[in-house]
Design goal:
- It is built from nine helices and eight strands.
- The strands form three sheets. A three-stranded antiparallel β-sheet has the order 3-2-5.
Length: 312
């Protein structure tokens, strides 16, 4: 037992243990996307990035361990007043990352708390510039304005704000009721407009149909009248042609001796028929001076015909 104790307490073992302790204190493995800030005698000495790094034992120390990853911080719900004096309750989520570990450590005491408070104050300021309706319609623009304002102020802290998202915007109950009534009125208005547009289009369609019907009926009547007129014209031409042909044949027949006799007989017959018609229609009958009145009429008619033939 004494031999074992003597072996343990040998200077070589003591030196070995001391070397192991020194190596463990001097070698630092920094994970990916992290940064160690080293202080020497309480003063900033260097920033150790990912990989194998060495420090001086008992002199240097790791003062801060900063993550370089993107971080998401919940921005607590807060009250804000819009431009039209409406009180809102708004919360959101802030996304940022550390660009400069030195500034994030020595430029501000608690950069997460500082950025969160800055996001709240900036959000209240931006909401104060907008009316209630615009806060719902232009939420993307509101988020962009908040990010720009925070980045302008957080530059000395070595922080870059990537985006800000508003989760909920809760107006008072009275405003919610008024908004619901307005939305209902808008829906009723749109329904009435659509109904009136439908009635208007239906009336236009009916008018167009009636117009086309009248036009088609007029065109059909016009075509019917044109066809009827053409038919009547063709009938008149046919009758005239037939009469002309008949007259031509009568003229040719009248130019002969037999034709002359036929004409005389026809004229005498018509004269007798005329006398009979007069006797039937009138109670007074005028008797001719001579018995040759019909013959005289025939003679006169033949004389007129011969005179016309001589002129031709």
């Amino acid at each position: 037992m004494e031999v074992l104790l003597d072996y343990i307490l040998t200077p070589q073992l003591f030196i070995l243990v001391l070397v192991v302790i020194l190596l463990k204190s001097s070698i630092k493995f920094v994970p990916q996307n992290r940064a160690y800030l080293v202080e020497r005698f309480g003063k900033y000495q260097s920033t150790k990035e990912a990989g194998l790094n060495f420090i001086v034992p008992f002199i240097d120390r790791i003062a801060a361990d900063r993550s370089l990853k993107e971080q998401a911080v919940d921005v607590p719900e807060q009250s804000a007043i819009t431009k039209d004096n409406i009180s809102l309750h708004v919360d959101g989520v802030l996304y940022f990352r550390v660009l400069d570990p030195y500034k994030a450590t020595y430029g501000v005491d608690n950069y997460v708390f500082a950025v969160t408070q800055l996001a709240q104050t900036t959000m209240r300021s931006e909401l104060g510039k907008m009316e209630l309706d615009k806060t719902f319609e232009e939420r993307d623009q509101l988020n962009t304005n908040i990010v720009t304002s925070i980045n302008d102020a957080s530059g000395p802290w070595g922080i870059q704000v990537l985006r800000y998202e508003i989760k909920d915007i809760v107006p008072p109950n009275s405003v919610m009721e008024a908004m619901e009534a307005q939305m209902k009125a808008e829906r009723v208005k749109r329904a009435q407009i659509l109904e009136s547009e439908g009635d208007r289009q239906a009336a236009i369609n009916r008018a167009e149909g009636a117009k086309q019907s009248v036009v088609l009926a007029a065109e059909a009547d016009k075509a019917e009248q044109v066809l009827k007129a053409e038919g009547e014209a063709q009938a008149i031409l046919a009758v005239a042609a037939a009469q002309a042909e008949a007259l031509r044949k009568v003229g040719e027949a009248a130019d002969t001796e037999e034709g002359q006799k036929a004409i005389q007989l026809d004229l005498a017959t018509k004269a007798i028929e005329a006398k009979q018609a007069i006797a039937k229609e009138s109670s007074i009958v005028l008797l001719p001076d001579g018995n040759t009145e019909a013959a005289s009429l025939v003679t006169q008619a033949m004389a007129i015909i011969n005179k016309m033939n001589n002129k031709d």
